[in-house]
Design a protein that fits this description.
Strand content: under 5%
Number of domains: 1
Mean pLDDT: 80
Number of strands: 0
Low-confidence stretches: 99-103
Structural class: mainly alpha
Radius of gyration: 17 Å
Shape: globular
Distance between the termini: 16 Å
Largest sheet: none
């Protein structure tokens, strides 16, 4: 149970704060549309991820055990790779600069949905990491699957909402220090969780 909670926590935090198209859009939306616009973008994964998760779980569930083990190993290595990337990026990561406000928050959710659907990262994550972990947790106990999913989305949406709040309040004057350190800490967690995933695939 605790292993799935830790995996969900580390992966959700990293997905929430890692540089990428959705984070860039979230910061831009927070600057031009205020907190309401940023929160709408933060909620986009709750809309876009369901079909991606369903497809990934169906694919993983139909594979033979041997293939699932190798897929789990690949997923663990992907997580380690993501963790190393987060640690390296943490040394120089920068939040986008302030832009000119020019729109209201109503369309920000749709912008977030479009960006996340076109972003390859969710597909890669759920095909190689999230899907196998969810299937393995469900086979052990539905509570294990829930222990992975709940903290993942709480941290994913919560960290993005926190960034939106900070950016909207300070209008681009947000310090980079906390962001870089948090990104590096999440990278260390990812490396540990990736190694755990790879080992668990063969236990």
């Amino acid at each position: 149970m605790w292993a799935y909670l830790s995996l969900g926590f580390s992966m959700g935090l990293n997905a929430g704060i890692s540089p990428g198209p959705l984070l860039a859009l979230l910061i831009t939306a927070s600057l031009r549309s205020g907190l309401a616009g940023g929160l709408r973008v933060a909620l986009a994964p709750l809309v876009t991820d369901l079909p991606i998760i369903a497809l990934s779980v169906l694919l993983v569930g139909s594979l033979p055990p041997e293939a699932t083990r190798w897929l789990g190993t690949l997923g663990g290595l992907v997580v380690v790779w993501m963790g190393v990337g987060a640690i390296r990026a943490g040394g120089k990561a920068a939040l986008p600069a302030k832009g000119e406000p020019h729109s209201g928050p109503q369309r920000e959710l749709w912008r977030g949905i479009i960006v996340n659907f076109l972003n390859p990262h969710p597909y890669l994550f759920w095909a190689t990491v999230g899907g196998p972990a969810l299937v393995r947790g469900w086979r052990e106990s539905p509570l294990h699957a829930l222990a992975f999913m709940a903290p993942f989305y709480v941290l994913l949406v919560g960290s993005k909402a926190t960034i939106a709040w900070l950016v909207s309040r300070r209008a681009g004057g947000l310090s980079q220090l906390w962001y870089r350190r948090t990104l590096q800490c999440s990278g260390v967690l990812l490396v540990a969780m990736g190694l755990w995933l790879a080992v668990q695939s063969w236990v």
